[in-house]
Design brief:
This protein is mostly helical. The protein is built from nine helices and five strands, in the order H-H-H-E-E-H-H-E-H-E-E-H-H-H. A hairpin with a 4-residue loop joins strand 1 and strand 2. The radius of gyration is 15 Å and the shape is globular.
Amino acid sequence: MRPQDIVILLKVASHLKNRPGELFFNAPLVKKDIASELGISPAEVTESLNRSSYAGLYDATNKKVRSLALMDFLQYGLKYVFPQQPGALVRGIPTAHSAKPLSDLISSNEVYVWPNANGLARGQAIEPLYHTVETAIQNDERMYELLALTDAVRVGKSREASIAIEELKKRILSN
C-alpha cells in the first residue's frame, strides 16, 4: 500500500454515498475523473486501484470499494502503516480534530494543519497522506471531511481516534 491508495479509495467511496437532499446515482467514477479531481496521474490511479484490488480493498469488477475491508484497515492498520507526529507551528489548512466534523465534537487547544502558505489557521504541521490533498479538497467538502477524519486516526489520541472511526463509519458504511 502507498499513501495515495488511501486517498483514491476514499474518493471512490465518497462518490457513491449521498447525503439527505442529494440525488443519488450509482455510476462509478471513471479513472480519468479520479485522476483529475485528485491531481494524480491516470497511470498512478490505475496502479493504485490494482494494488487495492490485490489487497482486497477494491472490487475491480464492480468498480467499488469494499467498505468493510477499508474500515478495518483504517481502524486497525492506518496508524501503523502511515504514522504521523505533529510537527512545527506553521500556517495551513485545518485537519484531524481541528477540521469539521470533529471540530464540532472535540474541544482542544491543539490545532493541526496541513502546511499551506495560503491557509487561514496556524497550528502544528501534519503531513497529508499525499501531496495533492489540497487539490482533492478544493471542490469536495466530503473528501475534506474524510481526509481530516483519517488524519485524526493517524495522529489522534485514543478518544479522538475513536470518534473519528465512528464518523468514518457513518460516511463509508452507510447507504
